[in-house]
Prior knowledge:
By secondary structure, the protein is mainly alpha-helical. The chain has three domains: 2-52, no CATH class; 80-202, Voltage-gated potassium channels. Chain C (Four Helix Bundle (Hemerythrin (Met), subunit A), Up-down Bundle), CATH 1.20.120; 223-261. The protein contains ten helices and no strands. The longest helix is centred in the C-terminal third of the chain and has 27 residues, at 222-248. Keywords: Membrane, Transmembrane, Transmembrane helix.
Amino acid sequence: GDGNGGRKPNIMVRVSSKLSVSTLGDDPVRSLGQWILNSRQKFDEWVGSKPQKTPEEEKFDEVASVIRTYRGLAEEEDTDADKHWVDRSTFDVMMSIIIVLNTVLIGVEVDLGGDGSKGEREWYWYFTEAIFVVIFLGEVVAKIWAHKTWKWIFFDVWNIVTLGVAIFTFVNFVCALFGVYGNLRMLSLFRIVGLVRLTRIIRRYNALVELRLTIQGLVASFQTLVWTVILVAVFLYVCAVVLTKEIGHNRDVYGNYRKLSGGWDHG
């Protein structure tokens, strides 16, 4: 009697473990999705950022925001007074103006002062670049200081872009001082994409509702565009392999053309 009673818990454990394994195996995609969701939640808790909204919540907020905009109602968002000064609209507008100014000056330098690849830049181009390097690094330091943690970098993807641009522009400037010239500074042009952060300011003005909807459409279609580029790249790669095999390496049929072209288009 005691022996049977001692074996029952072991049987139950084995049965329950088999059930759990079979349950996970019945729908592995759902289990993987749940694992990814739990990992994302744990990462958000570690970083200290706000939890991500579900796609349904984002669509609901978007529709509600459009309705409020057309009806002239105020946005139900946190006021700037409740945010850090580095997260307020005024700071975003100021940094956006600096980003646009940096982009314009880079274009003017390329048009008038050369690309600087051989060190023929004038002193005032170095001076203006130094100013923007200090500003970009100061923005990163100010936000880390305001949030009291370096984990601020992971709060938003634009924060990673901000940090990356600041580091690359600083490295490019230091290398230029030692006579090593590169084009890392051109990466700062990517910060112009960060102007989409001004959407939360644009939405407050009814006259700019079309601009806001256009920006939202571009951002929403970006993921679809990425997958389109990937599919097109795969298709072109397959076509390139087939054509190279059937034409480029088929010297018996296309040998005469190889003589005409000099072989530059044959492997």
